[in-house]
Amino acid sequence: MTEDEIRAAFVEELVRVAPDLDAAAIGADDHIQEDLELDSMDVLNLVSALHARLGVAVPEADYPRIATVRQATAYLGERLGTGPA
Questions:
Q1: pLDDT grade, residue 17 (50/70/90)?
Q2: Radius of gyration over alpha carbons of the chain, in Å?
Q3: How far apart are CA 54 and CA 73, in angstroms?
Q4: In the chain, what are the domains?
Q5: d(CA 55, CA 19)
Q6: What's the rounded Cα separation, in Å, for the pair 35 and 82?
Q7: Which partner from 1, 23, 32, 60 sits 20 to 30 angstroms from 38, CA to CA?
Q8: Bridge partners for 68 per DSSP
């Protein structure tokens, strides 16, 4: 997957978990909890959705690495073998 495809997949799953969000208004550095107001259950649902869609398990210790779209794109790219090591 390309970086753009990973970013798009993350944002799509984010909006599925929190349908009140506008995908076009989500910034690369918006924090999913602080700025987008996801609660801990939303984050868990997002992690589950990412696992189902991309086959990437995100352990709880790595949740801070998916806190923004930019961070999540880099992290998922690493886990998928398409990003920097």
A1: very high
A2: 11
A3: 12
A4: 3-80 (1.10.1200.10)
A5: 22
A6: 28
A7: 1
A8: 31
